[in-house]
Amino acid sequence: MPGPPHPPQKRKTPPVLSNVRCAFRKTLLSHLWTYNLYYEGQALQLRHREEEGELIVEGLLNVSWGLRRPIRLQMQDEKERIRLPSLSRSQKSKCSVETPTITVTPSDSPPKQHRGDEAEAESESTHLLRTRSDVGGRRSGGRLIRRHRCSINGHYYNHKTAVFTPAYGSVTNVRINTTMTTSQVLRVLLKKFKIENSPDDFALFLIHTSGERVHLKNTDHPLAVRILEGPCEQVSRIFLMDKDLVEEVTYDVAQYIKFEMPVLQSFIDKLKEEEDREVSKLKNRYMYMRCMIEKTMQCCSQSSACI
């Protein structure tokens, strides 16, 4: 009789891949401890957990605005629209028949302001209204008056056109985890501020103070990159930038960015001299090889003529 069926075997992880994951896990935990120590007592501290043997770190990631083109925001939030309660027929007829009575009482209000004071008060009230960043509505006289989004991240924008350009270098943050890729982080960031532009128009760059600029690929994990890079944003920062306007700058090139023009010109002159020497060496070498080939061909032709 055939024996009992064997239980299904679990798929084993290749030893090389397992070793790589283990090494990455240890490195990430070590940098995470330093990261949380740097932000001790602040909201930027990160938490970690394990799910199915995988280490997951989550928390807030600081992202700096580095856009050169204006972005377009949603005019209104559909989810925040206020629905008015429906009225019955009796209530509608009552509202249409009854008229409000107005009683006139003697005014105890202070004297009227001058024109300059009125303009100043009007400007102050306008400024207070512009600081509203929510989108909603309020009921006034049976009508729904909608309020438009007038500020984002502390910066004003034109609510009529919904066009906005964030101040370069201003910082915002998003709550993500280490399993999220760059493309996912971009979508979360645009959704948070209700930006209508496509995520394909933007990219995340890791910019160092030395001038080095690294483009985070769609398969990279920005939070893991931030942890491994270190917590200090005076050394490096993650920027949201226009994808087609910014290029990568390697470390070798970044070393020369902060030099003055005379110093850079001296570097160019020295490189030119070295290039001329190398070109001269190559020319002499090929001239010598050409002479040797021609001499060999002449000897072969003379020997064949003698035969």
List the keywords.
307 residues, alpha+beta, 7 helices, 38% helix, elongated, 12 strands, single chain, 6-stranded mixed beta sheet, two-stranded antiparallel sheet
Q: What is this entry, summarized?
A:
It contains 7 helices and 12 strands.
| Alpha-carbon distance between the two ends | 91 Å
How helical, in percent, are the residues? 25-40%
Assess the beta-strand content as a share of residues. Answer: 15-25%
| Subunit arrangement of the protein | single chain
How many helix segments?
A: 7
Poorly predicted tracts of residues = 80-84, 94-138
Biggest β-sheet strands, sense, barrel: 6 strands, mixed
The structural class is alpha+beta
Rg (C-alpha, Å): 35 Å
Overall mean pLDDT stands at 75
SSE string: HEEEHHEEEEEEHEEHEHH
Tally of strands:
12
Overall 3D shape: elongated
Word description of this protein:
- This protein has helices at about 15-40, 90-95, 115-130, 180-190, 220-230, 250-255, 260-305, and strands at about 45-50, 55-65, 70, 135-140, 145, 150, 155, 165, 170-175, 200-210, 215, 235-240.
- Helix 1 packs across helix 5.
- The radius of gyration is 35 Å and the shape is elongated.
- The strands form 4 sheets. Strands 1, 2, 9, 10, 11 and 12 form a 6-stranded mixed beta sheet that branches. A two-stranded antiparallel ribbon has the order 3-8. Strands 4-5 form a two-stranded antiparallel sheet.
- The chain is an alpha+beta fold and about 300 residues long.
- The protein has 7 helices and 12 strands.
